[in-house]
Amino acid sequence: MSNYNFEEKDSFIVLGIGTELQSDYTDYAGINKEKADFWSAVKQDGRLDTLKALATNDYMFAVNEAVNNKMMHYAGVMTEASLPEATRVIQFPKGEYLVVKGEGETADELSNKLTGVAFGQVLPVEKNYAYVGGPNATVEMGQKDGVVFGEMWIPVVRK
Fold first, then answer.
1. Is there a contact between 61 and 86 (Cβ–Cβ < 8 Å)?
2. Residue numbers of the domain that contains 26
3. Which of 117, 110, 145, 113 is nearest to 39 (CA)?
4. Domain of 91: which CATH number?
5. DSSP readout, 112-138?
């Protein structure tokens, strides 16, 4: 299992460009394909570079959030700026977060691996904390020796 811990974070804002995921929430292959297609599109059409230019740090966020009973997925950055093509300003609450650290050969692999560990291994057996909704994010923090590294941040509450 990847290493993980629980830590306190201040509230923060991520500016995101998003898409609604149409696949059933149990259709992991469908969801992953939709996410990969979305990332490919925002890279190709320049929206991702526009977003990155506004960032206050080098972190790239892949955010999942339920909004009005829709599963949304966003490419995002921490920033105080706004952008006409941005879909949403995503508010992450102050509080405790499950933080899962890992690496992958690509950003997609990193995200899939961290999501699997967080929701498939850690949260199902965790006795003291629970995820009760709200935005969660894979945070791509950089590359080293050809490997993408980062963390998944999931807001949790004590049981």
1. no
2. 4-158
3. 110
4. 3.20.80.10
5. HHHHHHIIIIIHHH-SSEE--SS-EEE
